[in-house]
Design brief:
45% of the residues lie in helices and 17% in strands. By secondary structure, it is of the alpha/beta class. Strand 1 and strand 2 (11-17) form a beta hairpin. The model has no long low-confidence stretch (mean pLDDT 97).
Amino acid sequence: MPLFKLRDGAELYYERNGSGPPLFLVSGLGGDGRFWGANVAELAKRFTVIVHDHRGTGRSTLSRFTYSVEQMADDALQLIEALGYDKVHWCGHSTGGAMGQVLAIDHPGRIDRLVLSATWARTDVFFRRSFEVRAMILRELGPAAYQKSSALALNSPWWVRDHEADLAAAEAKAKETIPEPEIMLSRIAAIIAHDRYDQLQQVKARALAICARDDMVTPLYFTEELVRLIPEARSYVLPDGGHFYPHVHGAEFCRVLTSFLLES
């Protein structure tokens, strides 16, 4: 089981697959590298794909402290350095995209190409209220209710309609997925606090922002904002798929990502 020890002694679980240019696939608030599922095997045909469980999630150390997007990004940077990479491609989904912004701004030499998937530059009223409600449900009703309610925002209505068994299975494992609710609450507070809006013009990496038109967690206007603020960035918008569109349209996601990373 590959574990990397951070400078403060906590450990990150990670996996490395394939060969070729290094590509960090970084998951969102849930933090578990298994989010990427079959995308890893497909992308590993062309890249060395690295996924990791964020600190406080999955198989990594469940540190009890105050989380921040900067701290999450620094943990990932320590892993990049430990694996011996001077520069990597970064594809970050949601919270992973916020981490990518931090690295592209604060450590520009470390990011080759930057893919921002279903993410945002800074919190607005919609985003803040959405996550305040999710935090309230977790705090007052527990992990199973959090999972059940979150699924309505994370997925397209038609996907929910057709995948009741999958949703029930995820809800049954909620206490395993969120063993320490206070950690998730701290991570929610961290993403609400994320704000790199005024610094995005400093991004030097070639950037692509991807989203689904029906995303109700990070609506389309967040992607449009990223493209407006990051020099020469461009976007790719899927017609549907919700916030978890890489699960719904995995083949299209991998095709678009691979094309962008390999173009001259």
